[in-house]
Each structure stands twice: as structure tokens, then as C-alpha cells.
Amino acid sequence: MATKKKRTPNAQNDSWVVIAADSVTDTQKQDCDPDFVRLRNPSTDEASLYMLGSGDGQLYEVKAFEEDFHSWFVGQTVQRDGKLLFVTQMDPLYLILPYMIKSGREGKFQPVDQVVKDEDFPESSRLLRCTRSLTSLHHIAEEKEVAGTKFHRYSEERTLNWLKKKVERTVVALKKKNICVGEGVKSTTYVRVKSESDNQEEDYLRYAHGLISEYISEELSKALLKHLGLPELKSPKEAEPPSKKRKLSDKPVEAGEDYTKFNGADFARKPPKKMTAAQKSLAKVDKTGMKPMSSFFSPKTKAEKK
Amino acid sequence: MSCNASVTRLHLSSLRRADKAPVHLMPCEIEHDGLAQVSQYFTATTKQDKKEKTVSFRGRGLKGQEISCPQGYTGLVLKEVDRHGSDQEDRTVKVTSVFDKLTYWNLETPPTSDDTVVMAMDWPELAEAVSRVWSSP
């Protein structure tokens, strides 16, 4: 399936280079060891790798940064696999949401521990043990309490408001980091230029929407776009950020059956599509540099899968 | 039982014994896993001038720079322990090395802040807005 061209199988890989939030390794706070677990990715509906730490109190996502033809030197050893994994804190509501939506179709209030049950992903129930899971369910559901027991029912309205706040927060973060969005990225130099375009605010919103969309279903992503007052772009191909044309992606780490297939699918396999002449010449010069941030942080189109 | 049930445990006790290793991201695939005389043949010939590091590796000029892990984040090298048994079994990894900065190398081109790995280091901070739980209700 997703073996890389012309490469010998890399089955013996048993080592990974990771950049992890300090809380992962904080032995003061950790009463037990963190676990890498496979949970249902809310955007792809397939298995992705996550981490549960602090006695399940904290959820982390695992994202791989990878470019073709890279390897590591670690001390006096070579590690062939040039991936860099990022382990960052994640809001468990994103993973709870699909279950809530599914049970919401029945229109009844239900106890959440019956909602978040997944035969294919037995570890999912651990999500409810995350510190803020139960106290933040009101962001995505209506609550009712009967005789000391809480019941929940999915609320799209609440969910969209919650997601909108996430988008707004992301816009602030993008601006703060001075990350190029939209047109600013397309130039031949890839220098981070400030665009004078009036649409910059919309560019930020769309970019942030794209980032959030990686944590929600396509349907919800569309509803969110509407909620943000942004029209759907006619041709998603044209709307896609330069990233799609490049080789990297920030596809979530899909857990294969094997830990070695950390990054299951085809991170770097996509041939660059429709590059401009300038991009092509740059690509020849050096494949490692000069790619816009969005090349791995921007939204991943589902159409591109497989 | 579904294979999704298996977990991989990170043994934090290994952290105490982990060494602080220099870490280099090389712009080529090296088809080898295991020991190599990195300090003798690579580190020893690396030159550092004001802006960048340079080294010749397999006849190619590499240019690189050191970058730090984002604040609040630590670099870890994980290694699987005692890999045996079937895929269904839970597995464990330990921390063999830690690092707070790494050196990445470009082929020929000087390092800049637009290099992808530099930009990748922005992800953790962005992730806090995108996906992290809010600190306020």
C-alpha cells in the first residue's frame, strides 16, 4: 500500500525522535506512565495515534513532521527514519464530539459513558477520565441532571459556537506567530511578506478554519464555515493553500498495526502538483528549505486520501 | 480483539538514565540504524562561523544551524524495549536520550527562518490555540 518508492523496507525501525510537552515527562505530576493509544480520528474516522498521560488526565495528539530523504544522528548512532514527532496537548472534546453527534441523532439525553463507547477503539472510554472532559461537555451538548446523574444531548448550536471560539483563538495565534496565510505565501521567494490585501482577515479566518477542520468531520467543517460567515469557495482545488502542492502534510499520525508504521500512510509521497516555474527551480536547488509553514500545517483535503 | 486495543507505554523511569545527546537532522537518507562514528567523522570537521555551521559530508557541502525546542517542550529519543511476542501485545518504549536543541542541515543552502523544520517548531504554540483545552470555561 503505502510503501515509499525505491526504498528498502524500514521494518527494523524501533526508535523515534520526539518533541513533547514538558507535562508528558513531568514525573512529579505523573502518577503513572503515559500511553500511546489508538483512537478514532474525528476527521478521518480512522485510527490515529494519541497519548494519554497523567493517569489519563491529559490527552495529547501526535503529529509527525517528515520530509523525504532525511535521517538523524543521535549521539554516536544513525537513525534512518528522519521523522520528528510532536506531542502536544489536545482537547478531548474533539474526540468525544463524533460520538456525541452520533448518539444525538436519536434525540435523547443519554449518560455520556454510554455515548463514548467504541468496540473498534476500546481505549476511547479513557477519554472521559481526562481532567476537563466531563466539565466541558456543555460546550458541545445540552445537559440535564436527574437524581444526581448527568445526561447529555448533542447541540450543534453550542458546538459551532465553541468551534468559532477556537477559530478566533487560532487567528490570534497565527498573527502572533506572524505566520503567512493566503496570498503572502505564494511568491517566488517564500519570504514572509505582509500582504496588503483587504482580504487578509478572511485569509486568516479561512486558514484557521482549515486547521480546526482537521479535528472535525467534513460535514461539521462546512457548517462551521457557514457559521463563520464565509462562503464556500467554488473550486476547492484553487482554494487550497500552497501546501497541497508541496510534499509535506500534517496528516495526523495514523497508527498502523505496527508501531514501526508510526506514520502509516503517505506522508511524503505526493508528487508536487502544479508547481510554478519558480517553485520548480527552487525545488531543484534544495528540497529541504523554503517551504511555507502551511506545507505541513494547513488543512488536508480528504479528496487527496488514497 | 482489535489491534487498536494495544497500547504502547512510555517508561518514565528511564528518563533518569537518559543521556543528553547531540542531535542532527541530516538532509539525506542514511540506510542504516545503529552505531556510527559521528563525532569522529562529522562533528570533528564541523565549522562554526557567525551565521551558520558548515561541514562536508560525503563530498557535499552542508550548511546548518542549531535550533531550540519550543519553550515548555523537551526533545526525547524513544526506543522500544524488548520487542517480542505478537502485535497484539502491549509494548513499551523508553527514553534513551534527551535534547533541548538540535542541529539541522541543509544541502548547500544557508539556513534561514523559512526552513521547514524551523517553522515546524511553531506548531506547539499554534497547537495550543487550535487543539488544546481552554484554561477558562
UniProtKB/TrEMBL annotation, chain A:
<comment type="similarity">
    <text>Belongs to the RNase H2 subunit B family.</text>
</comment>
<protein>
    <recommendedName>
        <fullName>Ribonuclease H2 subunit B</fullName>
    </recommendedName>
</protein>
<comment type="function">
    <text>Non catalytic subunit of RNase H2, an endonuclease that specifically degrades the RNA of RNA:DNA hybrids. Participates in DNA replication, possibly by mediating the removal of lagging-strand Okazaki fragment RNA primers during DNA replication. Mediates the excision of single ribonucleotides from DNA:RNA duplexes.</text>
</comment>
<dbReference type="GO" id="GO:0006401">
    <property type="term" value="P:RNA catabolic process"/>
</dbReference>
<feature type="domain" description="Ribonuclease H2 subunit B wHTH">
    <location>
        <begin position="94"/>
        <end position="224"/>
    </location>
</feature>
<dbReference type="GO" id="GO:0005654">
    <property type="term" value="C:nucleoplasm"/>
</dbReference>
<comment type="subunit">
    <text>The RNase H2 complex is a heterotrimer composed of the catalytic subunit RNASEH2A and the non-catalytic subunits RNASEH2B and RNASEH2C.</text>
</comment>
<feature type="region of interest" description="Disordered">
    <location>
        <begin position="233"/>
        <end position="306"/>
    </location>
</feature>
<dbReference type="InterPro" id="IPR041195">
    <property type="entry name" value="Rnh202_N"/>
</dbReference>
<dbReference type="Pfam" id="PF09468">
    <property type="entry name" value="RNase_H2-Ydr279"/>
</dbReference>
<dbReference type="Pfam" id="PF17745">
    <property type="entry name" value="Ydr279_N"/>
</dbReference>
<dbReference type="InterPro" id="IPR040456">
    <property type="entry name" value="RNase_H2_suB"/>
</dbReference>
<feature type="domain" description="Rnh202 triple barrel">
    <location>
        <begin position="30"/>
        <end position="91"/>
    </location>
</feature>
<dbReference type="InterPro" id="IPR019024">
    <property type="entry name" value="RNase_H2_suB_wHTH"/>
</dbReference>
<feature type="compositionally biased region" description="Basic and acidic residues">
    <location>
        <begin position="234"/>
        <end position="260"/>
    </location>
</feature>
<dbReference type="GO" id="GO:0032299">
    <property type="term" value="C:ribonuclease H2 complex"/>
</dbReference>
<keyword id="KW-0539">Nucleus</keyword>
UniProtKB/TrEMBL annotation, chain B:
<dbReference type="InterPro" id="IPR052863">
    <property type="entry name" value="RNase_H2_subunit_C"/>
</dbReference>
<dbReference type="InterPro" id="IPR013924">
    <property type="entry name" value="RNase_H2_suC"/>
</dbReference>
<protein>
    <submittedName>
        <fullName>Ribonuclease H2, subunit C</fullName>
    </submittedName>
</protein>
<dbReference type="Pfam" id="PF08615">
    <property type="entry name" value="RNase_H2_suC"/>
</dbReference>
<dbReference type="GO" id="GO:0006401">
    <property type="term" value="P:RNA catabolic process"/>
</dbReference>
<dbReference type="GO" id="GO:0032299">
    <property type="term" value="C:ribonuclease H2 complex"/>
</dbReference>
